[in-house]
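Re-run with default settings, no changes from the original entry. Doing this only to confirm the output is reproducible before filing.
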Amino acid sequence: MTRVQDHLDAYTQSWKSSAHTFPSFSHTFPVTEKQRREQVLDGYFRSVNAMKSRAPRRKPLTGDAQLQFITATRHLLYEGLDFTAQQLHVLFSEELLDVSRQFVRQARQFDSALTFNEIFQACRNMWVMNGLQIVLGLPVKLTSSVFAYSLLYPYTDNLIDDPDISADDKARFSTNFHERLAGHSPQPRTSTERIIFSLVDMIEAEYPRSAFPDVYESLLAIHDAQTRSMRLLHAGDSLSESETLEICLAKGGTSVVADGYLVAGTLTKDQEFFLFGYGAYLQLLDDIQDAQEDRAAGLHTMFSRSNEFLESKVNMTHWFSSMVMQNLSLFGSQHLEIFSSLMRKSMELLVIGAIAHTSDLYSAAYVLEMENYSPFSFSYLQTHKEHFVPYNGFLLKAIEELAVAEYSSVTVSPFQQ
């Protein structure tokens, strides 16, 4: 879309002009307060383990046990992580839980070959769109476009990441997919392409191309950004830091702009501008969290290239997020206050959690200073990291239990090819 480059230029400049100073977090947690919260978390683990032990082997929690699990998770988020009652009301609203159940059921029926992890990955895509429904004042529901777009990227990601598919075949798929998003009718070459094209059909049924051209411009923009992002793999010294930054910002920014269009059909220029920045920040945050894995895989991001100025870049990302959040007022929605508070809390906790779990990438002084703002000691987090990575893993785990139950209960039929 024509405005992508303008957004990219603006936010690239915002990131480059961000302060290098240490982040300004809400408050510190003394050692005694960390210990109190760790006791709360220990109690949570004991109660969850007790529930699991009473469930049949390898079976999901059902009925009252699910309710107990969600209640325990709400208590933990309230007592351990200072989520407010209003924030928890939104996160655990019956509408969001119902949409999650409905999505899992519908995805399972759509394609029986989808694994639970793939469906849960798609659920996480959907929750971003649900959040946008809230902030845009729209009903929280599973539309055909929300369903289709949430599923598109498990399919396309799996195809691109499959080592058994040749580079030439991946390039041909990328060209074919671009043609389909542009409104043409290329012949699908594989069963996976046929499924992907059918998801585009669902979007077209809700948003006719003639009436909603920006929907398809946004889909082409994220496709082009993802195609360019393949340059980050094994890039060596062929990409400058500025090129790496722009590729990452474009990938994240165009993704969330597409979320917005598929939720609402139309957006104002101001709404689009905020969503691009929000998506760009989320991409940077993902790259901070995945720095070690990306480095091992040869994937170049701002945080995996080297340890040089790494702490400064994390600091800049924090201040970049503050500039992005200033643009949230462009939405003009009555739900902005609660949405803003949830976003700010998540941003803060996820940065701290990322440092806790990749502490060997940073200086001891930087880690120690960051730990002051963590509700739990870093040693405690590292000891229990299998239970939650990152902080919002508690919330995801609670909803995952519902998804597992729904996944296990659905009678599936293979996708009709």
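The two ends are 33 Å apart (CA to CA). The mean pLDDT is 84.
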